[in-house]
Amino acid sequence: MSDDVDDIDIDALAKRMDGAVAALKGEFASLRTGRASASMLDPVMVDAYGSSMPINQCATINVPEPRMVLINVWDKSLVNAVDKAIRNSGLGINPVMDGTILRLPIPELNEERRRDLAKVAGQYAESARIAVRNVRRDGMDQLKKAKAAGMSEDDQKLWEQEIQDLTDATIKKIDAALEHKQEEIMQV
Predict the structure, then answer these.
(1) CATH class of the domain defined by 35-105
(2) Is 51 exposed, middle or buried, given 0-12, 13-18 or 19+ CB atoms closer than 10 A?
(3) 42, 29 in Cβ contact below 8 A?
(4) What pLDDT score does 2 carry?
(5) pLDDT of 115-140, one tens digit each?
(6) Poorest-confidence range of 69-73, 107-111, 134-138?
(7) Fewest beta carbons within 10 Å, which of 11, 34, 96, 139?
(8) Domain segments of the chain as ranges
(9) Residue 70 in 3-state DSSP?
(10) What is the pTM (predicted TM-score) of this model?
């Protein structure tokens, strides 16, 4: 391949695609599967000290049992705010207050809720696929510019194939992660 392709950085494209996969895995971690997980509270924001902050910045989160999450709130004045944030988060969990400790019993998921969560996981995966395709489009746009700058057609075809192979491999990772998460959700 010639030297006039300095504008095309496959490593940067791969890094952006891997970022989409990492974001997807973070979204999957926040989906409840019937098992207790500290990461299921990551999207919960607490109104504290006049601003909104993640729950892990005002409390310690522990998972002592498979169906129980314990939240130890550091500031006693924030216990009600943390309780309210969890109840309003849409997780379907009702905290039990015990001083500065909140106990979150994780109920079993019914079949309908499992199907809904599997659909949500599919939506997250589709968003990640779209992000990967956008990165591919950016790479192809870079190729068009390089061709206009004098890149040979053979080099362009080689780069196009490399970008497409990278895209296909990343989409396979997304599909595998989705399949794994859906199995985890549907497992009783």
Answers:
(1) alpha beta
(2) exposed
(3) yes
(4) 43
(5) 888 888 899 999 999 999 999 999 99
(6) 107-111
(7) 11
(8) 3-28+110-186, 35-105
(9) strand
(10) 0.68
